[in-house]
Specification:
Elements (H helix, E strand, L loop, with lengths): L33 H29 L5 H12 L9 H28 L11 H47 L13 H12 L8 H32 L8 H46 L23 H25 L2
Length: about 350
């Protein structure tokens, strides 16, 4: 079935592309998967760059440190530099794959959402910025929610194993029982086996109710803010007489990382308290797994209710927002560059 996009709906992520002199032409068999392949490559690059900050964020959410610097120095002192990259294999697979699938689903979903939403007569709006915002922000936001909710089914088990690897040393210290570090599961497969052994297959989805809401809202804000800001900045640049015609393409390119940084800030700033609750709930689940490995009884876990966000819920926010800015700037810059230079 062919879906005809409404004329005023902006194409997802990159907009319309005209290839003049591409660096590479995608093989015919891979062409249908171009968005997924290029977003996967971009996500692997950005995930690797931002992982140490993600590790610090998780540790600060689940344990007490004086600050990000204290967390960093303590981790390096007790675990070495490798401690900052502990558990990176899982997100390199899952995060990159999740981002790739999310972008693909978002791109494919947007024209459907645009046709489902009722069309409004906006001819009375003269300002093109306002008109474009009203036409596209709701479409992008709902498309992001659909893609985020869908991918959470795939991402949750991988993220749980990542968190286990990031905090397994400090969680073990919380048990106040000496356990030889060689006994602790540190590899992805071993971590997954221990979760299944002590919590069953559904244990891989511990905290999923928090995860799906977090991913849905995050993707909704992430893509809608990015597209809106980028296109508004580029529209302003096109209408401006301040820059020459040869300079404007460079300004357009600069709009990409700036918009990515803003999208990351707003998305994480909005859902961070929920992410903290999710991390702490999963920490308690993982703590019980270690207790059972020691022959101790499980401790009762009371899910934390999401109340008005407090300062406590924003522990680790500084490294998290820094990571988000770096990751989204790198991701969108790499993705848009590849999309526009690989036909």
């Amino acid at each position: 079935m062919t879906i005809d996009k409404k004329p005023d709906v902006i194409p997802a992520i990159t907009g319309d592309i005209v290839y003049k002199d591409p660096l590479f032409i995608m093989p015919y068999l891979l062409e249908p998967y171009k968005v997924g392949i290029l977003s996967y490559a971009s996500s692997m690059l950005s995930t690797t760059a931002g992982y140490p900050l993600d590790s610090i964020k998780t540790r600060m959410q689940t344990h007490s440190y004086k600050g990000a610097i204290d967390c960093l120095t303590t981790t390096i002192k007790t675990e070495g530099i490798r401690g900052l990259f502990r558990g990176m294999i899982a997100p390199l697979i899952s995060t990159a794959m999740s981002r790739s699938m999310t972008v693909s689903i978002y791109t494919d979903t947007k024209p459907y959402i645009a046709n489902i939403l009722p069309a409004f007569n906006l001819d009375y709006i003269q300002d093109p910025h306002t008109k474009r915002f009203i036409q596209n922000f709701p479409v992008s936001f709902l498309s992001g929610i659909v893609s985020g909710a869908t991918i959470s089914l795939f991402a949750c088990p991988f993220e749980l194993t990542k968190i286990f690897q990031q905090i397994v040393i400090v969680v073990n210290k919380d048990t106040k029982v000496n356990l030889n570090s060689t006994v602790l599961p540190t590899k992805v497969i071993d971590v997954a086996r221990n979760i299944v052994k002590y919590e069953g297959w559904l244990g891989l989805y511990s905290g999923y109710r928090y995860h799906i809401v977090r991913d849905s809202l995050s993707a909704g804000f992430f893509y809608s803010v990015y597209e809106t800001m980028k296109l508004q900045l580029q529209l302003t640049n096109a209408e401006s007489d301040f820059f020459s015609e040869t300079t404007k393409p460079k300004i357009d390119a600069l709009c990409v990382p700036l918009s990515g940084a803003m999208a990351g800030c707003i998305a994480w700033g909005t859902i961070y308290p929920l992410d903290t609750i999710k991390s702490r709930y999963q920490r308690d689940i993982l703590g019980n797994i270690i207790r059972q490995k020691l022959g101790l009884s499980k401790l009762p876990i009371t899910p934390t209710k999401l109340t008005f966000p407090t300062k406590e819920m924003y522990r680790g926010f500084a490294p998290s927002i820094t990571r988000s800015v770096c990751v989204t700037m790198i991701f969108f810059s790499a993705f848009e560059y590849l999309m526009k230079n690989i036909a």
